[in-house]
Amino acid sequence: MKNQLTILFFVLSGIFYLGCTSNLPQNQRQDNHMEKFEWRPTACAPHLYPAKIVKGDFIFEDDSKIYIPAKWIMYNGWGDAGSAHIVGDDFKAVPTQLQITWVSYIEKKSYTGTFKLPQRKIRELFEQGYTDQRGLKGNFSTLNVGLAPGGIIILWIFGAGLALEIEQFQAIETQVTMQDIYPDAIINIDEHIQEGLQEIARDVEEYGTISSENIPYEAWSKKYRTRYNWTPQFVFADGGQHKKLLARFYNGEHYFLEHTNPLLRENKTWAVPKYYRINWTDKNQNNYGAHIYFDEGETFAAFRQLFDQNKATKAQLNIEIDKYNSNINIFLTNENEKIALTQTRIKVYSMK
To answer: How many Cα neighbours within 13 Å face the side chain of 257?
Structure first.
C-alpha cells in the first residue's frame, strides 16, 4: 500500500509539472533551471564587402555551443538574415559569449575574437517580445551577426517584422590558412580570395567601384549607428489614412508595422532611414503604396543639420501625400526648421 501511494504521488506530481510548463509561452520553457527560448543563429556582411566565416559559435553558460553557419561567401546586405541551419534543439538558452573568425575579402585580411554578450539585455528582449504588425505579441527568433571590414561586428536580434541592434564588438586581425577553411584545399588563401572576388564581380554590377583604398570603415562603426529622437508623420492633402510602414535603417535595423503600432509613436531613438515602403487608403477607400529610397548623403546631412548644428532634441519625418495620391514630398522638421529631402527616389503605385 505504501509503495502504491508513493507511485501515485510521483504520477500526480509529473502531471502537475507538465500542466504548469504547458502554460508557458510557446517560445519559452524551463529546463534544468535554465530559461530557454526558440531562436536560431545567422550572419551577414555588407552588400559590397563580402566575408566568409571560418568558424563561429554562440557559447552558453555550461560551455556548450551552437555554431553559426560558415564556409560560404556572404554579401547578403548589412542587417539582412543569411543562412540558418535547422539543427539541434529548437529551444536554447541565452548565450554568454560570441566566438568568431572570418575572412574579409576586399581587405584580404582575417579577423577573430571572443566577446562577452549582454546576456541580461538579450534575455529581456526574448522575454518581453514586441507588438507585431497584427497587433499581437511577437517573439524574437534570431540572433544575427554582422561582419564588416576593419573587424567590426554588430549583433542584432530579429523577429517577424522587427530587427533591433544589440551591441557592437571589435575583432583583431589574425592569420587564416586555406586548410583552416577546407582541410583538403590545394590552393592558398590568397588564390581563394581572388577566386571569390571574381565570382562575386560576375553577380554584383557595382563591384568595379570598390577597392581596399576606399572602404568606409566609419560607416559601420559610427556613422550608421548614430541615433536620433524622431518619428514618422504622414500628412494627407485629401483625407487619406496611413495603413502600414516597412522601414529599413542604415544601421541594419528594420520594422514592418501597422499604423496603430506603439513603436511608431514612442519617444525612442532610431538611426537614419534608408528605405520606406508605405501603404495607405484615400477617402474613397482606394488603396495605394509607395517605395521611398532615401539619398544617403542628403538624408545624413539633414539629420546632422537639425540635430547636431541646430541642437534639435526631437524631430518628425513628414511624408506629405498630395490630393491626387500621385506625388509625395518629404521633409525633416521640428518646430523651428523644415528641411526638404529632394534627392529621395519615390515610386507611387495603386493597389487592388
So the answer is: 20
pLDDT of the residue at 4? 44
Q: For the CA atoms of 111, 117, 122, 123, what is the dihedral angle to 10 degrees?
A: 140
CA angle 130, 136, 139 (to 5 degrees): 40
Q: State how far the Cα of 307 lies from the Cα of 229, in Å rounded to an integer.
A: 9
Q: Answer whether 75's CB lies under 8 Å from 148's CB.
A: no
DSSP H or E stretch at residue 121:
helix 119-128
pTM of the predicted model over 0.85: yes
- CA dist 56 → 43, 74, 97 (Å): 10, 14, 11
Mapped onto helix, strand or coil, the DSSP state of residue 99 is strand
Distance CA 311, CA 303 (A): 10
pLDDT digits (tens, 9 = 90+) for 257-292: 999 898 888 778 999 999 999 999 999 999 999 999
Q: Supply the pLDDT for residue 87.
A: 65
Distance CA 333, CA 316 (A): 5
Beta bridge partners of 67: 57
CB < 8 Å & 24+ apart, contacts of 305-314? 305/337, 305/339, 306/332, 306/334, 306/337, 306/339, 307/228, 310/336, 310/337, 312/336, 312/337, 313/229, 314/229, 314/230, 314/267
Length of the chain: 352
